[in-house]
Each structure stands twice: as structure tokens, then as C-alpha cells.
């Protein structure tokens, strides 16, 4: 397929490369032009602007937040103005439920299709084309863009014909990951304060009760205190928890743990943690306890 890809950050670069590997013709655009250089060397076409990436069957966006998605979607040379009628915008960004609703309505009004397809997985998983894709949108449209989704992920879970449901599932998943990070950090701080080796403790946990990849991946980062380089930056984790709480507020679902996590991220950022991986909230408990 002829695919446009907008957003070549930690995740987007790997996703765009996976599309190339699958044989798609890929035109890329990134606000910082230098980030496109590596993928262009692999065979992608460099777009000079958003409109250049909207000349094919599909345009995929993988951007940091609501404002970034709004910036490339709306305006005189945005996606809505540039994408041909009947073509599809696939949004893999982690955005608010409210914006997803707005994008769905505005694309439909303009005669374009919108599919929400956020993903689970860190940058190394994106580079391997092994992401898990959570999709929401019309069955017919999702079927049309399946070759794109198959290229970036190992499995696609279609959760609803309403795109916003996919965004809500993604946000709920990030809430659960953050909950695991916080609980691992607290548990490790507890046992380490009494002299138990963190790496041995992690081996015990992941060999018995908690063998899931999320415990192994984040447990290792917390045990080693290795929060740089970032795979997913702390400010983005803070943003996602705020979006979870906003969705919960609209649905009148109390989420006391999400409120706690908001404060943990805010504490991390208040102490200069903007440059760290979001797993750094797992190091707060050790610091608070006077440990290393």
C-alpha cells in the first residue's frame, strides 16, 4: 500500500521501518527533519510537510499527545485538508477519549475514515514489528488497513467499531503498567532496606508469581536503577494518567490508584525527572525510605 507516516520518535521510527520491510511504499514526515534521515536511507520518501504524507491510501500518525495530533490533523495543510476522500487516517498515538471522538466525527464529515490503533510495546518491540495493536473503527475500514496493522504488530485486537474504545483500552493498559511499576518499586524498597538483593528478589518474583513480561522488563529497570535512556518519557506517563483520570471522571468511575499515580509522576517531575523513563517512579519509594 501507499502509506504516509507522521511522527518518527522512539516508537514511530521502528513502526515506519516495519512498514518498509513489509513492502509498503512509505512517505515520512517529522517536524524535526533530521529524524527522517535514517528511515529515508532505508528506502522511505521524505515528505516536506504533512500534505506530502497524505497522498496515499493511508496516513499513520504516531505523536506524543493531543496537541501534536491536532496540529497535524487540522489547518489548511493538515490531514483533513490533504487526505483524499475515502482514504484513512490511522492514529496510533495515545490520546484522550474526547479527542478521539472529535477526530471520528470530523473525518466522517469530511468524507475520510478514522481508525484508532494505539499500540502496546516499547521501542525495541516496535523496531521488531512485534507490537500489539488495539484497533477501533468500522469493520470494513479496518479490513482495508489490515496490511498496515499487520506490518507494525504481531496481533491486532479489534475492540469496537467506535474508535474511542480503542483509546480507552490503551489508556487503561498504561494505567495498569504504571500500577505495576509503582508496586514493584515499593516492594523492592521494602526488601532492599533489609538487605535482600534486588536482582535475586526480581528473579524470585518472575520465576514464581509474576512471569509476565511487564514485571521482567520494568522490574529489571527498577532493580538496576536504570532510567536512561528513555523508552517512554516520564512526562508522557504523567500525561497518560491524567487522561485516564479524565476518562474516569466522564464515566463516573472512581480510580483511587490512578490519583495516587498522578501524584507519584508529579513528584518525579517536580524533582527534575523529565528526562527519565516513566519507570523512574519505581525508584521513588527507595529514595523516600532513605535507601539507595
Structural account:
With 292 residues, the chain is an alpha/beta fold. The protein is 52% helix and 14% strand. It contains 13 helices and 9 strands. Strand 2, helix 2 and strand 3 form a beta-alpha-beta unit. Helix 8 (163-193) packs across helix 10 and helix 11 (234-251) packs antiparallel against helix 12 (256-270). The mean pLDDT is 97.
Which keywords apply here?
13 helices; 292 residues; alpha/beta; 3-stranded mixed beta sheet; globular
Number of helices: 13
**Main beta sheet: strand number and arrangement?**
6 strands, parallel
What is the helix content?
A: 40-55%
Strand content: 5-15%
Low-confidence stretches: none
Rg result: 20 Å
User: What is the typical, i.e. mean, pLDDT?
Assistant: 97
Topology pattern, helix = H, strand = E: EHEHEEHHEHEEHEHEHHHHHH
Let me know the number of strands: 9
Structural class, judged by helices and strands?
Answer: alpha/beta
Strand order of the largest sheet: 3-2-1-4-5-6
- Tell me the distance between the termini: 52 Å
**What spatial form do the alpha-carbon principal axes imply?**
globular
Question: Could you give a quick summary of the protein structure above?
Answer:
The protein is 52% helix and 14% strand.
Strands, helices and their partners?
Layout (H helix, E strand, L loop, with lengths): L1 E5 L3 H12 L3 E5 L7 H5 L3 E2 L11 E4 L4 H8 L5 H4 L5 E4 L5 H13 L3 E4 L2 E2 L2 H5 L3 E6 L2 H14 E8 L2 H31 L4 H10 L5 H12 L9 H18 L4 H15 L13 H5 L4
